[in-house]
Amino acid sequence: MATHTFTVPAEIWHVIFSFLSSSDLQAASLVNRDLRIMAEPFLYACIKWTWTASQTPPITQFLQFIVQRPEVASFVHELIISGDHFDCEWHDYKYQSQKLQVSEDVTNQLVRYVESIDVPYTKDWIQELHAGSMDAFTALLLSQLPNLNYLHLSENFVRESRWIGMILRSSLCESQNNHISSFAHLREVLVQCPCQGFNIREHTDTKNTESLLPLFYFSSIERLSLSIDNPTTFTWTGRCPPNQSRLTSLDLSMMREGHLGQLLSVTQGLRKLKWFWAYHPEIKDKFVTDIIDLDLIIMDLSHIQETLTDLTIGARASEWPGDLWPSTLYLNGSFNLSGFHALERIKIPIPFMLGFSPTSSMINLEKYLPKSLEWLTITDDLCFQEEWEWEYDKTHLVGAVRSWLQDWRRFTPRLRGFCLSGEVQRLEDWQPEMIDGLKELALEFGVHIQVTGKGITNVFG
């Protein structure tokens, strides 16, 4: 039977293994050497771990395995390591991450391996390994994955990210003989950082900017989803800014306007941008202010004006614990996208396009939208601001939309639809008269219109 089994072409086994679960692949790899050789590339292609207060990922065991059998590291194409809070208290971030309990024998084995890596910070790195730092162990793992193409690091793994950043910088700046992965195949990275909580700057001044900016230098990167702190001074990792030609999709939060432009200036092939504007009084500085500078945002976006097809902007102002309302926000300028001739889809908070109230002078949708537009979605982000007055409006929002739609074939001839989206509110929180007014517009002008709220959608037209 065994003889017949191994006369089957390897391609057939590859098809079979591609459908097997991890447990089945593990079992197959234990049958004999031939099956192990064929099964292991599938078994280790995607590593998924979770780190919580009660669950520790087997990272040290896997590192030991790589030390003993370096070829296994080349099988890893996806690394997904998750865990989104060791506890859910406001002050969770003021504590250091949990330390790994690693035996001295295992640590010494990994230390000898680190000593073979030619980097100037070996001594400090070894100290962190002895201290049980997950950041240091994760950095060691990343440094040895030459074929990695997808990386997902969630909150618990990036609460402390100094050593991960050091490895990324070394990959770019140190000798090519330092035995660190070049990340030449890395196409997509998702980094979910912890929320910045109450009194954060009383406990830490650490920012992750230096750790994450190196990602923009990897020429193979196509998609990035990052939460990046606002630095005091924006400085690129290398001697010169990156020239990011393959990046087409960027999902960015925390970084504010001004610094946003620094990033977008090196991503001139970007087609899809999702950006989350945020303000927190605890981290107020030169860049993190209570002013939504619309003119500066447009200036930042102008770096990708020729290629951007899909723009999504979200917004939030964090409140102090116990406060009834978030801090007051102020608008500056106007959000004029009329010159973005490739832009097809826009999703944006109502205040960015129309101001915080019906009395705003910004109600000129037709002047601010590009002719290439196919879908416009305006959302209720920032609806808990005291200056928000749209919940009392019954006619002005409909009037602003009417002013545009009554001549939409001239202003936006490719238009396919419009959506009023309740990202925060329920559908019933919108004024019935407003919904009825939008329904009438859909029928009058032959435009597809949606009104949504908390997962419920009304479709007109």
Describe this structure as you would to a colleague.
The chain is of the alpha/beta class. Among the domains are: 1-37, no CATH class; 334-461. 31% of the residues lie in helices and 17% in strands. The chain has 18 helices and 15 strands. The protein has helices spanning 2-5, 10-18, 22-29, 33-43, 59-68, 104-115, 122-130, 134-143, 155-158, 162-173, 209-212, 259-264, 294-301, 350-354, 365-368, 396-405, 408-411, 432-445, and strands spanning 46-50, 78-82, 150-153, 188-191, 223-227, 249-253, 272-279, 291-293, 310-317, 330-332, 345-349, 375-379, 417-422, 448-453, 456-460. A 13-stranded mixed sheet has the order 1-2-3-4-5-6-7-9-11-12-13-14-15. It has a two-stranded parallel sheet with strand order 8-10. A hairpin with a 2-residue loop joins strand 14 and strand 15. Helix 7 packs across helix 8, helix 8 (134-143) packs parallel to helix 10 and helix 16 runs parallel beside helix 18. It is elongated. 34% of the residues are buried.
